[in-house]
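Why run this: before we spend reagent on co-expression, it is cheaper to look at a predicted model of the complex and decide which construct boundaries make sense. The entries below are exactly what would go into the expression plan.
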Amino acid sequence: MTQDNAFISFRNVNKFFGKYQAIDDVSLDISHGEFFSLLGSSGCGKTTLLRMLAGFEAVSSGEIYIDGQPMSGVPPHHRPVNMVFQNYAIFPHLNVRDNIAYGLRKQKLSRAKRNDMVDDMLELIKLPEYGDHKATQLSGGQRQRIALARALILKPKVLLLDEPLGALDKQLREQMQLELRALQKTVGITFVFVTHDQEEALTLSDRIAVMSEGRYLQVDTPTGLYENPVSREVASFIGTMNFFDGTVTSIKDGNAVIKVDGLGEVSAPVGTMPLMAGNTVTVAIRPEKFLLTDDKPDGLQYSVKGQLNNAAYLGERSHYYVSIEGVSQPTAVSTQNRGRTKEIEAQNRPVWLSWDSAAIVVLKDV
Amino acid sequence: MKSGTYIKQVNRPLQFYAVLFLIVLYVPVLFLPLFSFNDSIYVKFPLKGFTFQWYIELLDREPVWAALMNSIKVGVTTSVIATGFGVFAAKAITRYSLPGRGPVVGFIMLPLVVPGIIFGVALLVLLSQLGIRLSLYTVTAGHIIVCLPFAIATMIPRFEGFDKSVEEASADLGENAWWTFWRITFPMVFPGILASLLLTFTVSFDEFIMAFFLSGSDATLPMYIWGQLRFPQAFPSILAMASIILAISFILVFLGQWINRDAHSNTFESK
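The model came back. Tokens follow.
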């Protein structure tokens, strides 16, 4: 699976810490200028992968290539990558300017040239007035930007970001996400971003690798991951997903007819998935793909009757939990609150759930 | 003063204990300066008149100045070398995964508890076997052993107090280990280095047992004091000198502690 335009390549990379295998035979290609995210819960190996890219951890076997060059034995200070650390790692004894100019020593620039470059960076990170402040006097968001500027001033080929937004509060984080995305478009360099926040990964990334236990489960665009997850694990990690058990009854032209517990018989596209009649499968449907109505609607392919047992009003949308006979877990349904929404009505009333075959994702049971 | 939480409230018995503790610790020592200003060559109550005589007499004694210079030479050399070793030992102990780290640290700290006389005799035997003549150099060597644990114990909190990702960031920004040390590590541990210099100088300056075993014809100040104790008429001047040493030692150690006061709070998580 080598790509010609791969800028960063992991080739059969393994990493052991003693007997513990942190990375399990990962091969992965990242293109030039891509915003690539490594997404997973803690301990999945995403940070280890990033630190191997930066040179702080050696690979146990395999090879990492950056811009065609093998990186084994290349120390961090000779790699064409720069990193933004999770806790920013700002140099506390230096002021903001000296922090940003730290990596320029070897370039033997004139003082004026160096000051210009630092000024440009301060402008870029929108802190032009802060050059002479002590770095320790700044807020988390400001320190995060200094860490960014300090890395970007060296014009690295790759910028590595280790959960850089994790320490910020929600509003600041959302603002920084937009800024980070805009910045990446401006400077045009490859970003490799580590996060455990799936929403953050979806917002920022061109492509995402969903990781678990030292390997990735799926690498795809945000839309691809959300709409076409390849496994139950990916589907439940990205957003909310309803799972139903089913059995294939027949297959014809890439479409399977599946008998689903509680939902009845549905037809769904399965592409080239190696399925035969009699296979058990999982049928997955996102909460927002359902239409929730009081009466049975016309026009949609499939409908099923259920009992509304829980509802939560979340402003722009509402969440409902509907129990369907023959389905063990309550089914989550999400609706956009368009127009003026009434108070959520009495619960424990009968409702109809409807959907069409495009809403269905078929996952092969392993 | 009734405000404050359960833990923070004023505890009278504890206060009393603390005061008593300090009295027992320091009152005996304070007799030295007291009698050094006493206008009598006998150290006994009641006190006679107040005088600077013993201090003035001290100034006229040639050997005192020679011994002082010897002590300063030994002290400065010892503190610089012990602190130098201490910095790298503390960095190694805190930064790298060292197999058997516990025992290694234990052995490094051992001179703190091993009686000086044992180290003194051991070194004396070793030096005479090697045929090395006793001099201020051998005293310095002995003092370095005594001072190393103090240097390392001062430096370790300093290294533990800052996040190693700061050093990683420096490497990431293109600096090798040497430059990272000089541009990041050294400035950040510098207060610890100053504190260690002051502390180890004080320890060396006051040290007697090693100097007793390992010095040749040149005496350090404590050696000189020891030698003068035989002469009753010299005793008040010795008290005066001891008072000066006491005062300077206090000042140096307190200065060191003050410089190094934020050793543990040197990280930069949110304020």
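The two ends of chain B are 28 Å apart (CA to CA). The longest helix of chain B spans residues 62-95. Bring this page to Monday's planning discussion.
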